[in-house]
Amino acid sequence: MNELKLEINTTFYCVVGAFVIALLALAGLFTELNLSFLATMQITIASVVSIAFAINFLLSMAGHKRVTLCNQGLSFFSMTGRQRYIPAENIQSIEFVNYIGLTMTQVKTNNGIIKLLAFRVRKEQQQRLKNLGYLA
């Protein structure tokens, strides 16, 4: 079986880190303006996002979370942490969309679109995807 494991999208984690830092900076500004409720909400959101993505990043680095494409189908983890499998017959196409420097992999299936942010495909892997028949 031909397997292709997608690599970790470090740009995605950098963007999330910048978002968390911006939230914390705004929270500091709101604290100085005596808007403590907004500051508390922003610190809470920044804390939850940073903890969730730190755990996700560590699990991805350790290999516990990964996205694998093969000639049998697609295996990935959902946002809730459940491992999902999409058979190759249900995959219509794979596209790479670029939003403000952040590359997102979109897998179009019969049931909808799966968007993969935390994982990306290298240039060499795109050739293997062509060989597997996912790219035209």
Question: Can you describe this structure?
Answer:
The protein is an alpha+beta fold. The protein is about 45% helix and about 30% strand. The protein has three helices and nine strands; from the N terminus they run ββααβββββββα. It has helices spanning about 10-30, 35-60, 125-130, and strands at about 5, 5-10, 70, 75, 85, 90-100, 100-110, 115, 120. Strands 1-3-4-5 form a four-stranded antiparallel β-sheet, with helices on one face. A three-stranded antiparallel β-sheet has the order 6-7-8. A hairpin with a 2-residue loop joins strand 6 and strand 7 (about 100-110). The longest helix is centred in the middle third of the chain and has 27 residues, at about 35-60. The two termini are about 20 Å apart. The mean pLDDT is about 80.
Computed Rg: 18 Å
What percent of the residues sit in helical stretches (DSSP H or I)?
A: 40-55%
User: Biggest sheet: strands, sense, closure?
Assistant: 4 strands, antiparallel
Give, in spatial order, the strands making up the sheet with the most strands. 1-3-4-5
Q: Class by helix and strand content? A: alpha+beta
Helix count equals 3
**Order of helical and strand elements:** EEHHEEEEEEEH
According to DSSP, the number of beta strands is: 9
Unreliable spans are: none
Would you tell me the overall average pLDDT? 81
Structural features:
136 residues, alpha+beta, 4-stranded antiparallel beta sheet, 3-stranded antiparallel beta sheet
Summarize the structure in short.
This protein is an alpha+beta fold and 136 residues long. Helix content is 44%, strand content 30%. Strands 1-3-4-5 form a four-stranded antiparallel β-sheet, with helices on one face. A three-stranded antiparallel β-sheet has the order 6-7-8. A two-stranded antiparallel sheet has the order 2-9.
